[in-house]
Amino acid sequence: PRPPLLCRKLSGLYFIEDRKEWSDLEPVPQDDGPNPVVKIAYSEKFTDVFDYFRALLKNDEKSERAFTLTAEAIELNAANYTVWHYRRVLLQALEKDLRQEMRYITAIIEEQPKNYQVWHHRRMVVEWLSDPSEELEFIADILSQDAKNYHAWQHRQWVIQEYKLWDSELEFVERLLEEDVRNNSAWNQRHFVISHTTGYSDPAILDREVQYCLCQIRKAPHNESVWNYLKGILQDRGLSSHPGLLERVLELKETQCSPYLLAFLVDSYEDALETNNTRATLNQAQEVCALLAQVKDTIRREYWLFLGRSLESKYGPTAAPQSDAASSDAADQQELS
Amino acid sequence: EEEFEQIDFLKDRHVRFFQRSLQVLPERYSSLETTRLTIVFFALSGLDVLDALHVIDKDNMIEWIYSLQVLPTEDESNMQRCGFRGSSHIGLPYSSKGPGMAHPYDSGHIAMTYTGLASLLLLGDDLSRVNKRACLTGLKALQLEDGSFYAVPEGSENDMRFIYCAACICYMLDDWSGMDIHKAIEYIRRSMSYDNGIGQGAGLESHGGSTFCAVASLRLMGRLEETLSERELDRIRRWCIMRQQTGFHGRPNKPVDTCYSFWVGATLELLDVFQYTNYEKNRNYILSTQDRLVGGFAKWPDSHPDPLHAYFGLCGLSLLGEPELMKVHPALNVTQRAFQHLQQLQQAWRDNVSSCT
Known about the structure:
Chain A has helices spanning 44-59, 64-76, 81-93, 98-111, 116-129, 135-145, 150-163, 169-179, 184-196, 203-219, 224-234, 245-255, 259-275, 279-296, 301-315, 329-336, and one strand at 39-41. By secondary structure, chain A is mainly α. The model of chain A is unreliable at 1-12 and 324-337 (pLDDT under 50).
């Protein structure tokens, strides 16, 4: 448990201005001039803490009382990055116990897990200690409360990459996907781990991932994340290059259809058209675009119609011969000026 | 089909909402202290989109914004810390002109420099009291080896948001010496995800906000078509257009949120495919988050409005061509009118330069 605020008037303690150990310091008020804008109406207590904080800052005082005051300022406004920076300066100048600081920042993040400053502060302390040993468990706890917290995932990726803690991450990802197969952050982490460890070049790994996706699709077909992942790991090799996949997808179309499956089909047909432009394949692509526009993904009707027109103009009878895209320097110059 | 939700746009409520935001906020908004200038931007630009800037005292506002500029000290020893502050929270005495006052912890913040300049611009100011050299020196000092930016010289997190702030600053000041464009572009490319959206950094989950920041930055740099192939652009278009559920969400399988009607909508507009979205569903969603009593918009229906969602809700409606709203420049995130004022200013700057040389 964290120490309570030192100046809670309601509980009988005094404001800082009433305490003699601060009497040497002249508090510094905020000055917004004659016409303040977006002025925040602070209580006396709030003003008191920050007026003294500003005084310490001005003198760049490096003392225990300054350190204690930063905790009070943080409790009032944990988003004030100047307070956090000053606290870090003091942590170093006063050679404070960083293990205790880890306990402190752990508690603050648990209370305010969507604040940028607290995660940055934790990262600094971990770096100073060169000790990531608590991180994966801590982040897992934060993710158990909000499995998609972007700050938490960002910190996790930093820790893993910086300290090479890859070994049990795929297992962690699978656990999360078992809890919620639609957790897009977990799918992203899956890609992060594999691309930085085994990679996707090994056909055995690639096939394992494809099978994993097909399995998850059968369980929960209406899931954009799994289709994005499947497409993502195959698209640069060519969607139509994985043997037998198109057939499996066409099977799934009958019983586990979704807009994402159909989009995958269109993209597979387009990929095939790039190397072997036939009217038959183009027709298949057009059929799926029409199905999406009219029935399966009507919110994007205009887009699927547009895509159909694009395919026709790129691969249809009136298509111009393929060439490198002309540069648009003229347009760029205009943008710059 | 019965209509239970009211979907009429309450323009006057929103004008009053922004006016109130500019006055006094209760203590529960204390976490916004260091970012007050961004709140000012949301309110001013919001009023601009509502064509209602006449309700505020522009001159007073301009003075207050200039008081937030971190100017060089006499000996110019703090050049790398120059820019704009978010507020007076450091405790320097009020001053809307130089020279700068030495203080061990006074520095600019990249998002405040961006919103400070944009606010001055939309108020019709000519930026003549901006120390451009100082701002650009301060900006350059924030860029990291990997191409991304810190927010403050003392250090902070670094991600796509601050690349966008940097691009806006350079664009407005018409001077790209404040950043290494090549490194920034490389950071953007490395942030492209396997699913064709763009994350806050390499390996991170693709997100509507960072996708906007990346695409808008490239557009401002004049490098969009040269950095991304037509195939890559098509893939980003697809990722973005899939974000529409009713309104838009920021990531697959997340709930929709009013502000993404701008982040994703503007990106789609920059990529010429916003026209293929479903306007009715988008509009109905945004209006379902309108607060009929106090004005403004919230992220979700029946939630409390705030200046950010009020502003981006309006911008989302503007993209849809809502009558009574001014058009918004999808890359610079100011009205077209403010953008034209900027173009005139920059022409005058260029004319001055050529008449001196």
